[in-house]
Write a structure and sequence with these properties.
The radius of gyration is 63 Å and the shape is rod-shaped. Strands 1-2 form a two-stranded antiparallel ribbon. The protein has helices at residues 7-21, 25-75, 91-131, 152-190, 194-201, 218-256, 260-264, 267-270, 288-307, 309-326, 333-346, 351-397, 408-423, 425-443, 454-489, 543-553; strands at residues 448-449, 452-453. By secondary structure, the chain is mostly helical.
């Protein structure tokens, strides 16, 4: 009590006052009763306050226990190392024991919540970028975190989801950059403005913006895909158009024999004539102005083509006639020239159609010439062999062939080769007849050689060969008879026979000499020429045919008295009449 004052001392003082005043016992009892009631009320209030305080502490303890359980559940922890095990003692003692644990768990909860907010914010950011609702780098609203589930398992789920989204974002960014690169390459080839094309899809695709800030939304990818497809289709169409123009340029150049210098001016157009779409990568290779330039040149050459139509057509006609001449096929060139001239002057046919028709005729003529080539090659070999046979006969009739004159050794070598060649003539003729008949049967036509049936020429050769065989037999018999008669009439002084003089021989018709010229000095020709002028393009029959026919028809000279056995020719080796 402050100042040593107590309830007893105060009551004594009150008694003294009452004694002095003279209060009655009844009044004194009333006052004392009031004092007791007032003291009781004070005690009662104090008890109530203490009870309320106790109840609050109990409630706080219960709440702490509930909070502890909730935190343990939210954090996914079954127990905490410092969780109070003591359940006895005063309420304050229990509260003091649980408070540090609650503080630790709340701190852990806040840290875990921040981790959830961070992960969920990144997830929402990437999802927004993919959906196109959030621009790259734009801050998203703080996500709502479920504080009743802050377990590590749930956090790992969010982190796994974030990793998948980050991977998808990386793939999308890579795809976007790939699309942008394709757009750049296509625009470069097509001569288009890359910046305006790509920013039309999305402004963030500009090269000046960092890669990690570019849009990766579904809409951006879809637009990029459509843009690439459109540009690729444009590239395909332009390349097709350019290749078509290049083909027309080549046709017109070939048609008009354009010089190399003129053609080289359009190398940038024709260089991709046979290229595929993926092979064309040069900048501006398919620009619109380049295609327009090629179109203008084609139009110019097409107009120029009409003025040179006659020259071109007759050039093609000459080519056609050369093919037929090389194949030894006779055509009416005069009529063809007149018909061609009439068509050009009438103007009833397009130049391209006329040239295409003539190209078709040239193609057919080449096919025909190709089908005749094998037979013509053998005809050429046959005629060459007949020339050698004619020369060999003249050589064998020459009495001075073994003299050591200049060039005699060369003639000897030629004679040996000629004998080998002549020995192959019968087999060559037989093969030629078989091939010619097969050719005629497969086509139902006669094989004409410079206007003469080849089989008729071969039949004539065989007939002349048979006639010559008969002539040779008669010559041998006559020679034998003359030798016997000379041996009988002329005997030497000692009874032996002397060598007969050279027998008389039949008159030799002109034929090729050993030096390659005929008796009258006219050299034989390797080619046939048809007698008479025929449409102004083919000449007369080759002199070779005439000289060969004369050589075959001639019975030939007998040999000299001492004729070497190697100089005799087989009875089947005859010179042909030139077809």
């Amino acid at each position: 009590m402050a100042g040593g004052i107590t309830c007893g001392s105060l009551l004594q003082k009150l008694q003294l006052v009452w004694d002095e005043v003279g209060e009655s016992d009844e009044d004194r009892d009333k006052v004392l009763y009031q004092l007791d009631q007032e003291c009781l009320d004070v005690y009662k209030r104090k008890v109530d306050q203490a009870t309320n305080s106790r109840d609050l502490l109990i409630q706080a303890l219960d709440d702490s226990k509930i909070e502890l359980a909730r935190l343990l559940s939210a954090l996914g922890e079954k127990a905490v190392a410092r969780t109070p095990e003591k359940t006895s003692g005063t309420i304050k003692q229990q509260l003091a024991a649980i408070a540090p644990t609650l503080e630790q768990l709340n701190k852990k909860k806040n840290e875990r919540k921040r981790e959830f907010v961070s992960v969920q914010s990144q997830i929402d950011q990437i999802c927004g970028e993919i959906a196109g609702t959030t621009e790259v780098g734009e801050q998203v609203a703080t996500p709502q975190v479920n504080e009743d589930d802050l377990t590590l398992e749930r956090l790992e789920d969010f982190r796994s989801q974030l990793q998948e989204l980050e991977k998808e974002k990386s793939n999308r960014l890579e795809k976007v950059l790939e699309y942008v690169s394709m757009v750049h390459d296509l625009c470069t080839v097509l001569g288009m403005d890359f910046l305006s094309t790509v920013t039309e899809v999305h402004p963030s695709l500009d090269d000046s913006i960092a890669d990690n800030c570019k849009s990766i939304s579904d809409d951006t990818l879809s637009k990029l895909d459509k843009t690439v497809a459109t540009l690729h289709e444009d590239k395909k169409l332009r390349l097709s158009k350019l290749q078509e123009l290049a083909g027309q340029l080549y046709d017109l150049w070939d048609l008009m024999d354009a010089p190399t210098q003129e053609r080289s001016m359009f190398d940038h157009v024709t260089c991709n004539r046979s290229a595929s779409v993926d092979e064309v990568t040069a900048p501006g290779a398919l620009a619109l102005d380049l295609i327009e330039q090629a179109e203008t040149e084609v139009q110019r050459l097409d107009q120029l083509k009409y003025s040179k139509m006659k020259e071109i057509a007759f050039k093609k006609q000459t080519e056609l006639e050369d093919i037929y001449a090389g194949a030894h096929t006779v055509i009416d060139t005069a009529a063809a020239h007149m018909k061609l001239l009439a068509l050009i002057e009438a103007g009833n046919i397009e130049p391209t159609e006329l040239i295409a028709d003539m190209e078709g005729q040239i193609g057919k003529a080449k096919e025909e010439a190709l089908s005749r080539k094998d037979i013509l090659d053998k005809v050429e070999k046959w005629m060459s062999a007949c020339e050698e046979e004619s020369w060999l006969e003249d050589y064998n009739r020459d009495d001075n062939r073994y003299n050591s004159s200049r060039g005699a050794h060369l003639n000897l070598k030629r004679a040996e080769k000629a004998r080998i060649l002549v020995s192959k003539i019968p087999a060559l003729v037989e093969t030629l007849v078989a091939k010619t008949r097969a050719w005629e049967e497969s086509r139902g036509l006669s094989f004409m050689y410079d206007g003469v049936p080849l089989l008729a020429m071969l039949d004539e050769y065989v007939m002349l060969r048979e006639e010559r065989e008969e002539d040779k037999k008669r010559m041998k018999e006559q020679k034998r008879y003359v030798e016997q008669k000379l041996n009988t009439d002329h005997e030497g002084p000692f009874g032996s026979r002397v060598s007969p003089n050279r027998p008389a021989t039949a008159k030799k018709l002109p034929g090729p000499k050993s030096n390659g010229t005929s008796m009258n000095g006219t050299p034989p020709s390797r080619r046939l020429s048809i007698s008479g002028q025929q449409n102004g393009r083919f000449g007369g029959k080759d002199s070779k045919r005439d000289s060969a026919t004369k050589a075959v028809s001639s019975p030939g000279n007998g040999a000299a008295a001492k004729e070497d056995a190697s100089s005799h020719i087989s009875g089947t080796d005859l010179a042909p009449t030139t077809p």
